[in-house]
Each structure stands twice: as C-alpha cells, then as structure tokens.
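DM from R.C. (forwarded with permission)

"hey, sorry to bug you on a friday — could you get me a structure for this? deadline for the figure draft is monday and I only need the backbone to look sensible"
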Amino acid sequence: MHILLIHQAFAALDEPGGTRHHELARYLRQQGHQVTIIASPVSYLTGTSKGKRIRKQTDDLGVTIIRSFTLPALHRSFIWRVLSFLSFMVSSFINGLFIRHVDLVWGTSPPIFQGPTAWLLARLKGVPFLLEVRDLWPAFAVAVGVLKNKTLIRLSEWLERFLYRHADRVMVNSPGFIDHVKARGAGEVALIPNGADPEMFDPAADGSGFRESYQLADKFVVLYAGAHGLSNDLDVVLEAAERLKQDRNVRIVLLGSGKEKLRLQQEARDKALDNVLFLPPVPKVEMRAALAAADACLAILKPIEMYKTTYPNKVFDYMAAGKPVLLAIDGVIRQVVEKADAGIAVPPGNPAAMAEAIHEMTLNPVKCRKMGMNGRKLIESRFRRSDLANEFITLLESMRRRDG
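My reply, with the result:
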C-alpha cells in the first residue's frame, strides 16, 4: 500500500516532539508499505522554523517527508495560529495533488484544519480516508479557555462532526475518546492506543553523563519532558518546587518548550527556585539519555474534566524507560498507571500533594525502582510500539479491502 499522511505537527526522530507517526511510518516501511508524509517545516512545539531547507527528503528506511509551506506564527496570537493552520491546509492540499498512486489518505487531528485536506484528497483520488483523533478538538480548546468565540466554536464543532461522519474509519489513541467521537457522528471507531518502543530506552543506564552536564550528580531528579503550554499546568510544578526548597537533594527538570516557557522561567527567577532547571527540547534520539538521568518522571495536565480522557504519549515513554511516573492527571491514564503500580498519582492542580509525593519518592528509592520496572513490563506486554503497529497495519489493510 501507498499511504499518504497529512500531518502539520509531525516530528521526525531527529526532532523534538512526539514521534509516534514517524515510528509507525518506519514500521510500515519495514513491512513493505510505501509512506509519504506531508509535514510542516515549522516546529509545532516551538513555533519556529526547524531549519530544514530540503523540501523533500527520504529517511534511511525510505519514508518520504515533504515539507509544505506554513506561516511560522503558531505562538504569536490566536489569529496568527489559525492563519498558520490555514496556510498548511492549503499548501498541503496542493502538494498532495501531485502525490500519485495513493491507496489511502491518513489525516490526523489536531490541528483539525488538516482534516478537510486529507478528506478532500482522499475523495479526489478515490481512496479511503482514515481520520486519527489524537485530542478532542475543539472540546479541549473550549475547556482550557483558548477558544471562546461562540461563532468559532459552532463552526469548529460543525467541522468536527463533518469529519467524523465522512471518514471511512475513525481511529483514536485513547479509550476515553470513543464515546465522544461516536456521539458526534463517527461510525466505525478503532482504538490504537499510544505506546512506546522499549528498545529505544535502557532502564539499566545510569544517566551520569547527562547529570554531570547539568550539575545533577547526587540529586533526586524529577523530570518533565514535553510542551510548556496552557494545558500543561506547570505553574503547579513551580508551586510544588517552592514547597521543596528546603530539600537540597531534589531537582525538578523541565525539558521542552512552548508558549508559556519564558513566563515560567521568569516566575521561577522571581521565586528564587534554584531547585528548578529549565532545559531546551531534545530530539527523540536523545531522550534515552535524559530519561536515564531521572529518578522519577512527571506528567501533568490542568484539572479539567475533559483531560480525564487522555492517554499522554510521554507517560508511555517514561514507563518504557523504567521510570516511576508522578502523575497529576485523572481518568483513564491514571487507571493504567495505578493498575500496573507504575507510579504515584496525585490530584491535578494540587501543589501540596505533588510536593508530598516527591518527598515520599526521595525516601523510597527501592520502591521507585520497582514501580519503574513495573511500568516497563506493562509496555513490553501491552503497549509495545511494534505490536500496536501490527494492529494498525491490519486496520489499514481492512480499509483497503473494503474499498476494493
């Protein structure tokens, strides 16, 4: 099969950000399928150009990546963000017209604006359209307060329902999304959950090189790796750090980038939080060393009801690395972590509980290591990327047979 993926937020393995799609594409290629990805040259994480001047490139396994024009204005304002989405929607459609012999078009949301591009290309080419839902947009945007205009909300919800109804199959990465998409018109829904590749990480690595680079030797390191945005509620982490200032053994490392990072850095300076270290984002190929240096890893979202539906990618990477998860997210992902005894869950939005949990972890290093290995075992048995990729291939092939 030749699969065409339209994905503005795509990140390759040598770039910062979530690399689920590159990992899946490479596995598809290894199984003999052809994959073409139309992606943005602008980082969805930082909003700046990735510095890739090559419009078309092919990785070492033969996955083709086409960089399509996008306004580099994701973090400038809401209006500029929409314009950036629309620029990619149009340019990716034009580029997609010239991709030949396609058997299936795969669209992914968010941003939802690339969904119409994938749908229209699929219809023009006479092939099935797979819509992947990674976040419940616009519901999440409304819940967090990013999308407030009633007219825009109605238009966005109309577009959401249109795509669900017109997709040949809707794929979700969390069981918490299924009821939402079905209630809004999705017919057949497939669950291919987020997962991780355990071979990318080594639980036995000591991470000493990373620790020495940032003066973290002999510290209890709590690592957060990911976006620094409105949804990530990192102000709570700073408040927890303030409560832990007297414990000179603890360091909280915030690795990543996003719209809120500069403000958070200023807040940490104002509070004299010398137990918090901000680091720039690193490509997925360098995350092995960063996670190896951590004693525990943090996942956090705002205490919003909608976020109880999520399966955050970072949690699965943390577990694959054999690290205990400090989880400030309720809902389906909490069920996964607690059932596996792979970490400690605290109420979202509660800095006192977070600080207490970190303190408890520092007193129980043996328990922490055991929880980390419990998470690793769960990834190997239920959330291994190669197993999930096989399920994905089965889904794609079933869609092609039905269309044929």
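R.C.: lifesaver. The chain has 15 helices and 14 strands.
me: no worries. The mean pLDDT is 94.
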